[in-house]
Automatic annotation (TrEMBL), chain A:
Signal peptide feature range: none
Descriptive protein name: Cobalt transporter
GO cellular component annotations of the record: ATP-binding cassette (ABC) transporter complex
Membrane topology reported for the UniProt record: Multi-pass membrane protein
InterPro entries (UniProt xref): ABC/ECF_trnsptr_transmembrane, Cobalt_transport_CbiQ
UniProt keyword Transmembrane present: yes
Alphabetically ordered keywords of this record: Membrane, Transmembrane, Transmembrane helix
UniProtKB/TrEMBL annotation, chain B:
Gene Ontology MF term list: ATP binding; ATP hydrolysis activity; ATPase-coupled transmembrane transporter activity
Main location: membrane
CDD domains xref list: ABC_cobalt_CbiO_domain1
InterPro entries the UniProt entry points to: AAA+_ATPase (IPR003593), ABC_transporter-like_ATP-bd (IPR003439), ABC_transporter-like_CS (IPR017871), ABC_transpr_CbiO/EcfA_su (IPR015856), ECF_ABC_transporter_ATP-bd (IPR050095), P-loop_NTPase (IPR027417)
Membrane topology: Peripheral membrane protein
Species lineage: Bacteria, Bacillati, Bacillota, Bacilli, Bacillales
Compartment(s) of residence: Cell membrane
Residue span, ABC transporter domain: 11-237, 264-487
Listed GO CC annotations: ATP-binding cassette (ABC) transporter complex
This protein's UniProt keywords: ATP-binding, Cell membrane, Membrane, Nucleotide-binding, Translocase, Transport
UniProt keyword Ubl conjugation present: no
Protein known as: ABC transporter
Biological source species: Sporolactobacillus laevolacticus DSM 442
């Protein structure tokens, strides 16, 4: 994971993770109620720019994430575009019916998916798991057992990746990889799932015992190695997000790119 | 139970049952110890030493719920527990955070933590570049010492150690015991271990268990060990001098590998891990009937080499087997036997390779039963491979590789984590195979195996073969008579 980050020193890394979490979550709600295609277009553009400015990922990773998000958005748009209702028919063949209205709705839906992913990624790529959970415990009073449970789970991810490689190697060595056909494929998948599951349960159990042996208590008070506080960066963050959102609405009012101000109306 | 200056802990009349087993595991077992004692618990695998350790620490029944009954269970006020598996006893990604986790549990002030973390790391002699280092980049031995450091943060009076070196190499083992000896001076130690060379220096009391989980001997170190010397061999305990005893009865490799017929040739062979070249061999030729041991430090590239040969990693350059279909003639045994298993039942596991090779049902049945008997797995044939004991898992992984009668057997530290009895049984088996003409390539850390069995030693350093010699390392250590024995090997 370490080679994925360019630098953990960027502005967005220094923001209180709980604040970031709450603000970002509220963005989801805001854009859920936007039915103006122009607003959505501007918002996705602005968040794309913001994402490139603040993201902690290296260029290569960043590009592929955005690319993947675009594809997913296209899929979610296409269903609405091709099978929607509307009066102004653009194209019709067999079951496919594309109208101006459905096109607008589809694009809005696609852009919403795109924006949601971007916003989510702004959070995910600038937040390290450990400080995030510490902040959740300290600011949002999340019970310690969930927070530490999640942190322990995060530790398992690279171990599981290694395990996946070992299972693959075992299949090559034992000749399982050479078997062909659907049944062999099914058995291989089964093998991956079962082994990973069994091993994960065992590991989780052992870790839990080890944690208790280290006097982890789910109920008692505890101190924190990282004390996550507030700083002026938090203010910057709120201002930046507010600016981005407002700018989106303002631009859509003054520079409407399409006539569809409410896709539900038409 | 505690008097003024002498504190005593332990259990009286302990009875305990494992789920799904009808019989009680311990029957009225009593065990007590006093402050400052350094105790070693020995016994055959599966005798319940580890379970007792967990009872003594209170982990059973507090964290591990097992049905148990006892007249009294006196648990020390502060204790620490070191587990066998270095991987699963951490819950945080970074070294400093792991120690901090314990400090948090003890409600240490945040500002005191960094200096305390440094203090505990110094105590176990763990020098990291920076304390905020990813735990998974540490070696097994370093992980175990970090585990000790985090336990020390509990400031425990009593330390329980449950085979902490079972998954470590000899160097890591030695360093860990040095650490434990140093930090254990003013503490009470209870140790379960089957490699006792380094432990013997600092313990003073020895407890011996039999197969039924009963204590049959309990006394001062020297006397107890002398009296029950034969029991140690029976239990498969690695004790000093065990190799000498073994060599008296087993002549070792005296048969010359005189075949000049190559089975494997490497030519400008490179193995990559994550797009980086991690092993390079310009020229290497392995002949039929050789027992090649691959030695070197941790991370030198030993496993990379054999995994490259098995085509499990990306390679460049030429690799030439003498066989047209090497996959039918070459078998590989992983370091961790669990990685070998691809089915859910012991007998299916054995038959798997045969099924892949399209043998008839009768033939598969015949061979599987043969192997079940030979490797003493008959009773376990319907069990899941993961439920077997450490020794049984190893036997099964070797058996499932050998069932196809391979011409070449490649093994990654096959004796890793095995007790002495299993190790010797395995070595005898490999020896027999070699005499029948099987070529063996084995990665090992165990120099006794190299000295005693190998016909050829490849030393790997920084991803290159730095030494390729016929085996004569015995000369340095052993008497003239042995040299003669070994000289016969040289060809």
């Amino acid at each position: 994971m370490d080679n994925v980050w360019t630098s953990t020193n960027k502005l967005f890394f220094k923001i209180n993770p709980s604040l970031k979490f709450v603000i970002i979550s509220s963005l989801f709600i805001v854009y859920l109620f936007v039915h103006n295609l122009n607003t959505m277009i501007w918002a996705s553009l602005l968040f794309l720019i913001l994402y490139y400015l603040v993201s902690g990922l290296t260029g290569k990773w960043s590009f592929w994430f955005v690319f993947l998000t675009l594809i997913v958005s296209l899929f979610s748009a296409s269903a609405m575009i091709m099978f929607g209702k509307g009066d102004h028919i653009i194209y019709q063949k067999y079951l496919i019916l594309i109208t101006q209205e459905s096109l607008a709705r589809g694009i809005l839906l696609g852009l919403r998916t795109f924006t949601f992913s971007l916003v989510g990624m702004i959070f995910a790529t600038t937040t390290l798991p450990v400080p995030f959970f510490y902040s959740l415990m300290q600011q949002l009073k999340v019970p310690v057992r969930y927070a530490y449970g999640c942190m322990a789970a995060f530790r398992m991810i690279p171990i599981m990746a290694e395990e996946l490689m070992h299972i693959r190697q075992a299949m090559i060595v034992r000749g399982m990889a050479r078997q062909k056909g659907a049944k062999a494929l099914y058995e291989r998948m089964n093998r991956y799932m079962l082994t990973m599951l069994a091993q994960s349960i065992r590991r989780a159990q052992r870790t839990a015992i080890a944690m208790e042996a280290k006097r982890f208590s789910m109920t008692e008070e505890r101190t924190y190695y990282y004390e996550i506080g507030w700083s002026r960066y938090d203010l910057f963050f709120v201002v930046i997000i507010l600016l981005t959102v407002t700018l989106g609405f303002v631009c859509s009012a003054y520079f409407p790119l399409t006539p569809f101000t409410n896709v539900l109306d038409h | 139970m505690s008097s003024n200056n002498k504190e005593e802990w332990g259990v009286t009349n302990l009875r305990l049952a494992f789920p799904k087993k009808k019989t009680m595991h311990f029957k009225d077992l009593s065990f007590h110890y006093v402050k400052g004692e350094k105790i070693l618990l020995l016994g055959p695998s599966g005798c319940g030493k580890s379970t007792l350790l967990q009872v003594l620490s209170g982990l059973i029944p507090k964290s591990v719920e097992l049905p148990m009954r006892t007249e009294s269970q006196d648990i020390p006020e502060s204790w620490g527990f070191i587990f066998q598996d270095p991987e699963t006893q951490f819950c945080m990604p970074y070294a400093d955070e792991e120690i901090a986790f314990v400090l948090e549990n003890r409600r240490t002030k945040c500002e005191d933590m960094p200096s305390l973390i440094q203090h505990y790391l110094d105590m176990v002699g763990l020098k990291l570049e920076k304390n905020h280092q990813l735990i998974r980049t540490l070696s097994g031995g370093m992980k175990q010492r970090l585990a000790v450091a985090s336990i020390l943060a509990l400031e425990p009076e009593v330390l329980f150690l449950d085979e902490p070196t079972a998954l470590l190499d000899p160097k890591g083992t030695e360093q860990l015991w040095q650490t434990v000896q140093r930090i254990g001076k003013d503490r009470t130690l209870l140790i379960v271990e089957h490699k006792i060379d380094h432990v013997l220096d600092f313990i003073d009391r020895v407890i011996l268990f039999n197969q039924n989980g009963e204590i049959f001997a309990d006394g001062p170190k020297a006397e107890t060990l002398r009296r029950y010397q034969d029991k140690l061999d029976e239990f498969g305990i690695w004790h000093p001098g065990i190799w000498d005893d073994y060599e008296k009865n087993h002549p070792g490799n005296q048969i010359t590998a005189n075949s000049k017929e190559p089975v494997l040739e490497l030519d400008h062979f490179m193995v990559m891990r994550q797009k980086k070249v991690k092993f390079t061999a310009d020229k290497l030729c392995i002949h039929r009937g050789e027992w090649v041991t691959v030695i070197g430090e941790n991370g030198a590239g030993k496993s990379t080499m054999i995994e490259g040969i098995m085509n499990l990693l990306r390679t460049r350059g030429k690799i030439r087997w003498v066989f047209d279909h090497p996959e039918d003639h070459v078998q590989f045994v992983f370091q961790n036997p669990e990685y070998q298993f691809v089915t859910d039942q012991v007998d299916a596991e054995l038959g798997f390779s045969l099924k892949v090779n399209n043998l008839t049902e009768e033939e598969i049945y015949k061979r599987v039963n043969e192997q079940l008997l030979r490797y003493a797995l008959e009773e376990q044939k319907h069990q899941h491979p993961f439920q077997l004991s450490v020794g049984q898992k190893r036997r099964l992984s070797v058996a499932s590789a050998l069932i196809t009668y391979p011409d070449v057997l490649i093994l990654d530290e096959p004796t890793y984590g095995q007790d002495a009895r299993n190790t010797f049984a395995l070595l005898d088996l490999f020896q027999q195979l070699r005499e029948e003409g099987t070529t063996i390539i084995m990665v090992t850390h165990e120099m006794e195996i190299v000295r005693h069995y190998a016909t050829r030693v490849l030393k790997i350093k920084d991803g290159r073969i730095v030494d390729d010699s016929v085996n004569n390392s015995g000369e340095e250590k052993k008497s003239g008579q042995r040299v003669d024995q070994h000289e016969q090997i040289i060809f």
